[in-house]
Amino acid sequence: MSRPSDHIDSRPQTPQAGVVQPKLGLSGWLRWFWRQLTSMRTALFLLLMLAIAAVPGSLVPQRSSDPNGVTQYFADNPDLAPALDKLQAFDVYTSAWFSSIYLLLFISLIGCVIPRTKHHFQALRAKPPTTPARLARLSGFTTRDAPAQTDAATAITHARTLLKSSGYRVARFDSAGESSVSAERGYLRETGNLIFHGALVGVLVTVGFGGGYGFSGQRVLVEGQTFVNTLLAYDSFNPGRFFDDTTLDPYTLSLDDFAVAYEQQNLQAYGQPIDFTADVTVTPKGEGAEPGVVKVNGPLRTNGTSIYLLGNGYAPTITVTAPDGTVVFSDSVPFLPQDANLTSLGIVKVPDGLAEQLGMIGFFYPTQDKAASGANFSSYPDLEYPLLTLNVYTGDLGLDGGVPTSVYALVTDTLTRQTGGATGVASIELKPGESAELPNDLGTVSFVDNAPAASAAGDFTQSVPRFASFDIHHDPTQVWLISFSALVLFGLFTGLLVPRRRVWVKATARADGTVHLEYAGLARGDDPALEAAVTAVADRHLKLLKTHQLAVTTPEST
């Protein structure tokens, strides 16, 4: 048979003749882009991208949580750090590229959830589908013969009751000589999926609001020092875009004691820290003092903020005295740990009171020992044999130009080195309670002992105070975040554990007056328990019919 002359395959196959695709236009391209963005495939891809984009935040320190670590990273990697900073690697979670993925995921999830929710509500209101004509083609197909004197309508009535009591939505269909019931359940599975995605949107919104109206600030406290929760008291402060500093609750936080427990039984892990405990005192405005404890993974929650323990180390108390006896510097200086045994580096700057500005780079060894090369190192992180070494520099410290400088760094390019290195003058070495003369008759420097009586008896454990670095975090959406997270888990487990299935029971009257029963099921997705469920329905239905038949015939026989 020949094709009509106007059939597409009968036309000349030339570039000018053939199927011509319609032009999408601006609205068509926008519709196509929206459908791609709101597809589940895109949402899963964006979730994966978000997880990958978060990885750099765990590889390098972040300004929001560890500003001291960022400073140290710049000092250790002077060439790499500026390049990473341009890529916002130290502010990953507020970077433009991370926020772009975050917002696209947010829009994609909303675009997925709204149409699915509408369709789900329509499906909940719709009755189950008509019973298929050939149940033998479906899963779990099985047959039974109804008890004698049972008609098809009665059999289906009991089947309907049985399925409805088992949590199925049911619909009955009757025709000449045949009755059936269609049942379905498992819509809670789709409800769980929608709750999961809706709660995930809630988490994203909550995190956004929390980041906008919350804040995160860091403060280093030496034992005995007190911090007041005001904006100027923070070492670094990272407010949200909509944060108002007038909402700060001005409580005080005092570090009373910082204790560290070290492993001393297992020689393979000897000296490793096993517990950190910061004993603090919190005094809300206008109220009495309240003791508290901050531990690793055990923050202290007070006055609308959560106080986390970030780091710790030693803060040797150093005093610099002018030749006339005037104390020009005296402070407990936090030294940053450089290794597991807390060999620590610290900077001392004395801009006034001496004939020249003075800078010192110090190394502190909690338990000083010497390597074969003669270099000092710390062999244990606790205070067993503490030693402080200082290299002295003089000249312009660069503090008078109004340019901010880090307290943990000393730029020596324009300074004159007075001790150590090629100067021929040995570095200053001090034990707790000792003093030494500064070069060029500048004065003296002392390493103050906080517990001289105990040190005299050979116990140095209290000779040097410790410092603790705290992260003070305020998130006004914590309750909402926990609630949405719980809903995410509920929706996830519901969507995974609740099976979606349909079951049909058909009763057909035979010519001899008996009734033939057919049972079958259909699952949406994998449901290994479907066949067993259909068989169980058939057995329970037959048992119910026999019980009913016995109840009907027993009075007549009596």
TrEMBL record:
Coiled coil: none annotated. Its main location: membrane. The keyword Transmembrane helix applies. Keywords: Cytochrome c-type biogenesis, Membrane, Transmembrane, Transmembrane helix. The chain crosses the membrane at residues 43-60, 96-115, 194-215, 479-498. It is found in: Membrane. Residues 40-533 form the ResB-like domain. GO terms for cellular component: membrane. The keyword Transferase does not apply. It is a multi-pass membrane protein. One of its GO terms (biological process) is cytochrome complex assembly. Pfam families: ResB (PF05140). This is Cytochrome c biogenesis protein ResB. It comes from Cryobacterium ruanii.
